[in-house]
Design goal:
single chain
């Protein structure tokens, strides 16, 4: 009879996600993972496979986390502009107990050029964000909150580009005030 797991899979996966998010794929060793996750090496392999498979699962875990947080933030907004502002604020302010920046961005810049699976996951996440922004922009255009002069997809691409830049800068010593100024200026394109 096999032994039962002595850990909650979702909890240790989240720990792995946080470590990859903080250190990146290459700098995170199996020993780091075992220690941080609080499980045995054999349990890591039996439950998650190899380091690369665990990393892909960690990226998926991050995607679910971000999607839930975005949904929660956006649900409180009364207008399309407020919803978009919430997205920017979330990416800038984040959560004090989380690593800086974005695991998708970090992974894309570190691994996408040589890892098609990581590239595909990052590409899908980026497209989801662009679609979300485009939907909010269309909503704002339909209600008259935003002018219809520009195509919603083009505006979404532009805003998403700014979001990516903000998430990269968030890993540096750039102040939150600077990041908010960048966001605020970029959002002015919605009112032109």
């Amino acid at each position: 009879m096999g032994r039962s797991k002595e850990f909650e899979e979702s909890i240790v996966l989240q720990k792995a996600m946080e470590l990859f998010w903080k250190q990146g794929y290459e700098k995170t060793s199996l020993s780091d993972l075992v220690k941080h996750m609080g499980i045995h090496r054999r349990s890591l392999y039996d439950t998650f496979g190899d380091k690369h498979t665990l990393f892909l699962k960690a990226i998926d875990c991050f995607g679910k986390l971000i999607k839930a947080r975005l949904k929660s933030e956006i649900s409180r907004a009364e207008t399309a502009k407020q919803a978009i502002q919430c997205i920017f604020d979330l990416m800038i302010e984040g959560s004090g107990d989380r690593p800086l920046g974005c695991l998708f961005i970090n992974s894309a810049t570190e691994m996408a050029p040589r890892d098609k699976e990581v590239e595909q996951k990052a590409k899908e996440a980026f497209m989801q964000t662009e679609h979300l922004l485009a939907d909010l922009i269309r909503k704002g255009q339909q209600t008259g909150e935003f002018p219809c002069e520009y195509d919603a997809e083009v505006l979404a691409e532009n805003l998403h580009n700014t979001l990516i830049g903000i998430r990269v800068l968030a890993r540096t010593s750039a102040s939150k005030e600077k990041l908010h100024r960048i966001a605020d200026f970029s959002l002015t394109i919605l009112n032109k």
